[in-house]
Amino acid sequence: MRSPKELQLDARIIEAVEALKLSGKALKATRAILEDEEVQALQEYANTVSIVRLLYNDHGPVHMRTVAYNTIIMMGLLRNAGIKTSLETEECGDFEDSLAALILASILHDIGMSVSRQEHEIHSEILAFPHLERFLGAAYRNDLRKRVMLKSLATECIFGHMGNRIIHSLEAGVILVADGCDMTKGRARIPMALSEGSARVGDIHKISANSIEEVRILTGAEKPIHIDVLMSNDVGLFQVEEVLLGKIAASTIKNYIELYAQVNHDEKRRYL
């Protein structure tokens, strides 16, 4: 059963896709994957492994939905700025095709956490493949060529979301940054409670995330995408400098991003 937070995110995701006024293929694929019980079960178990077994941040249904929402917002901002996706540039597809692949990839990108943290993006690829076939098969039933291309594109997006592998498409660069932007304190709430009174290697990720109050993705003044990271304590700068900046540096959309961080009411720091 989906939580109230998941249902809220589902509604926001659907609303964001509808606002782009596309033909309906991306929306059909989005509705199908958000309502799928098997995908939901995979996401929930991935979160159990991440939080309970490993005492790591949230990598479950809420996180994957948040990444999908971030992705849709960024794609819309790039589109408004006249930036073409790789599929459009290569004349292999249109904006909606890229968006459909990205939404599916976002919702599936961390299901490999159900196997292991190490190389979880590879496990995610393997577990995601039959689901990509199902959802693309429904939305692109009569277009074999598109189904093949979008499966490959979505797989690259999943494969590259950690920022430690070379990616080539604009689409994979979007999900990389969208993933990095989900670093607010909600992701660390449960593991922080479970690990209270003890210390483990990697706890800086939980501690720093716990100080991030909000991440805003807005229209930029100089570049298409403006990211504001608002935090209650400067330990949150670890998330910005060691996680988000690294993902942006590895992304194909790094030249389209303005990045700012602010601790309480201090002056904003500009990174990009």
Draw up the topology in text.
Blueprint: H1 4-19, H2 25-34, H3 37-53, H4 61-80, H5 86-89, H6 95-108, H7 120-139, H8 144-159, H9 170-180, H10 189-194, H11 203-209, E1 212-219, E2 225-231, H12 237-249, E3 257-263, E4 269-270
Parallel strand pairs: 2-3
Antiparallel strand pairs: 1-2, 3-4
Helix pairs in contact: 1-2, 1-4, 2-6, 2-7, 4-6, 4-9, 6-7, 6-8, 6-9, 7-8, 8-9, 9-12
Could you please describe the fold and organization of this structure?
The protein folds into two domains: 4-180, Hypothetical protein af1432 (Orthogonal Bundle), CATH 1.10.3210; 185-270, GMP Synthetase, Chain A, domain 3. Helix content is 57%, strand content 9%. The chain contains twelve helices and four strands; from the N terminus they run H-H-H-H-H-H-H-H-H-H-H-E-E-H-E-E. The protein has helices at residues 4-19, 25-34, 37-53, 61-80, 86-89, 95-108, 120-139, 144-159, 170-180, 189-194, 203-209, 237-249; strands at residues 212-219, 225-231, 257-263, 269-270. The longest helix has 20 residues, at 61-80. The protein is globular and about 55 Å long. 47% of the residues are buried. The mean pLDDT is 93.
Indicate the proportion of strand residues: 5-15%
Kindly provide the radius of gyration, computed on alpha-carbon positions and rounded to a whole number of angstroms.
18 Å
* N-to-C span: 41 Å
Give the % helix.
Answer: 55-70%
User: Please, how many domains?
Assistant: 2
Structural class category: alpha+beta
The average pLDDT is: 93
Q: Tell me the CATH architecture of the largest domain.
A: Orthogonal Bundle
What gross morphology would you assign?
globular
N-to-C order of helices and strands: HHHHHHHHHHHEEHEE
What is the name of the CATH topology of the largest domain? Hypothetical protein af1432
Give the low-pLDDT segments: none
As laid out across the biggest beta sheet, the strand order is: 1-2-3-4
How many beta-strand runs?
A: 4
| Number of helical stretches of at least 4 residues | 12
CATH class of the largest domain: Mainly Alpha
Largest sheet: 4 strands, mixed
